[in-house]
Amino acid sequence: MDNSRLKYVYLVVLSLIWGSSFILIKKALGENNGELVLQPLQLGAVRTMISGVILIAIGWKSFIATKRKDWPWLAVSGLLGTFFPAFLFAYAQTEIDSAISAILNSTVPLITLIMGAVIFGISFSKKQLLGVIIGLAGAVGLVLTGMDSHPDQNYLFAGLVLIACTCYASNVNIIKRYLQNIKPLAIATGNFVFIAPLAAIVFFSADGASLEYSSPAVQRSLMYMVVLSIFGTVAAKIMFNKLVQITSPVFASSVTYLMPVIGLTWGIMDGEQFHFWQGVSTSVIILAVVLVTREKKVVVK
Predict the structure, then answer these.
(1) Taking a C-beta distance cutoff of 8 angstroms, is the pair 14, 240 a contact?
(2) Is 17 in contact with 236 (CB distance < 8 Å)?
(3) How does pLDDT run across 65-110, given as a tens digit for each residue?
(4) Concatenated DSSP letters for the chain?
(5) pTM over cut 0.85
(6) Which of 24, 90, 233, 253 shows a CA-CA span of 20 to 30 A to 47?
(7) pLDDT band at 149, cuts 50/70/90?
(8) How far is CA 266 from CA 68, 129, 154, 215, in A?
(9) 269 burial level (CB within 10 Å; 0-12, 13-18, 19+)
């Protein structure tokens, strides 16, 4: 299959996988007698360590074949594309619904476009600029309507999702600019070679060793983490790195276009409430993503 078709296959598969990751995070955090089963730091660290073990086991030779001059960028890519977001999303979902996290995550193409233009010198069209403005308005609207309809949730934590989205956007541009010629498996493995030890430090610092591993609640949370790590991190990271290489940063980040639909479906099935004005705000964000990911015609400098 040529790249012109393959990119859409990757786009749909990644949307399905990552769109389901938010409900898996929610389930992994869990709740037992009114308390979280896994703390956000423990969850983010476990996810990173499991993914690291798997990737290093299957991709070590691929990583060793990379040039040492590329290692600093592999480390930065790992921190921005995986390490920090894993903790940011875990903390965010202690206060906001998984469906809202999925929707806010769709701002990644907008942030990618802004960063690509401002930091990496990538041009964009007037239509894409309009999309950025509309998308930001939709994100703000989503947070405001959420605060009104869910007064029991602290929507300031939505800011953590937006910070994570900024990390993702930075990583997409870094892969495209500095890691374009490295195999996707090597990039993913290299990321975890550098961040897995950091995750282990965080895990033990967050009393991860004191978890009651014989508890059914903890075992259930860890099961969700294994599923999330294998599909949402390992497989998805390799596919996404390839997608970035065969397309543009903005197109690759448009994987978030379909993710809200998947995330919303899981959230509603799990009993989360979703109201009319949140639906309006979601539609605004999706419209913005469509505008941003279209081919540019008129270049704005």
Answers:
(1) yes
(2) yes
(3) 999 999 999 999 999 999 999 999 999 988 888 878 887 887 787 7
(4) --HHHHHHHHHHHHHHHHHTHHHHHHHHH--BTTB-SS-HHHHHHHHHHHHHHHHHHHHHHHHHTS-GGGHHHHHHHHIIIIIHHHHHHHHHTTTS-HHHHHHHGGGHHHHHHHHHHHTS---EEHHHHHHHHHHHHHHHHHHHHHHHH-TTS-GGGHHHHHHHHHHHHHHHHHHHHHSTTS-HHHHHHHHHHHHHHHHHHHHHHTTGGGS-TTSHHHHHHHHHHHHIIIIIIIIHHHHHHHHHHHS-HHHHHGGGGTHHHHHHHHHHHTT----HHHHHHHHHHHHHHHHHHSPP-SEE-
(5) no
(6) 253
(7) low
(8) 42, 32, 21, 26
(9) exposed
Q: How many residues does the chain have?
A: 301
State the sign of the Cα–Cα–Cα–Cα dihedral 43, 46, 50, 51.
Answer: positive
Tokens for 172, please give them: 């997409």
Q: How confident is the model at residue 259 (pLDDT cuts 50, 70, 90)?
A: confident
Residue 264 has which token pair? 């919303």
Q: Which two tokens stand for residue 159?
A: 């800011």
To 10 degrees, what angle do helices 108-118 and 276-293 make? 40
Task: Identify which of 278, 262, 250 has the alpha carbon closest to the alpha carbon of residue 139.
Answer: 278
Residues 221, 211 contacting (CB under 8 angstroms): no
pLDDT tens for 157-206 read 889 999 999 999 899 889 988 998 999 999 999 999 999 999 999 999 99
